[in-house]
Predict the structure.
Amino acid sequence: MVTTGDAVSAVEVVPPDERRVCQLILNRPERANAMGPALVEPMLACLETAAVDGTRILVLRGTGSNFCAGFDLSGYEVESDGDLSLRFIRIEQVFQLLSSAPFLSIACVNGAAYGAGADLVAACDYRIGVGSSRFRFPGYRFGVALGTRRLAAITGAAVAQDILISGRVIRDDEAMACGLLTHVLDADAADSEIDRLSKEMTALDDLSVRTLVTNTRRPFGDADHDLAMLARSVARPGLRERLGQYAEAARQEKSRHAKTSEKY
């Protein structure tokens, strides 16, 4: 295994093997693999490299008990609205690289995939739930239009609207029913499925792989339009304040749940 930097890199990359399967591992378990610059920038570099180095399958995993907790709120209080806006735009660029990549992308989702973490899963071709996966899309609660059309392309407009309006947690059974997950497997079975795909893809030449993955993807829409909609939403004054209000509401909700659990 190699890393995209020093020994404590937030992203670990296993370069393509003999079947050209690359592994991208989110490695900030102490932050539930939340998407801060230390994670997002290496992800962008990895995806840009994978698009040109002959990678046929890219597998995303998260270390620890959760896949990805979404936008990293640590230190947001000292960032400007402009800094925060740029961070959201860079995250959207990760999603766009994945959803337009010339390789097959597979998310192996362990535990929670919330916010940008759920959007990261939605940008992938195969979405495998392992380890009681669960999802939540709270972005509109702080006014950020991130990944909306990718979710709607997978689930349909009405289901996506219900998920986004409610902000509820989606368990793996509901995620399978609405198409957000393509498989629910244990870890060994997930690895076997990836092995099967990679073996069968050896029968295809590189151009066939690129054409296949491009032509079979759902039409997510105009990438420039999606980026413009995101930019418009984060350009509204008060982004940092809205994030703070959301973070405080999340803390209060967590405290209420903890107190309720203590009673039983």
Remarks:
- Strands lie at 2-3, 11-14, 21-26, 57-62, 104-114, 126-136, 170-171, 183-184.
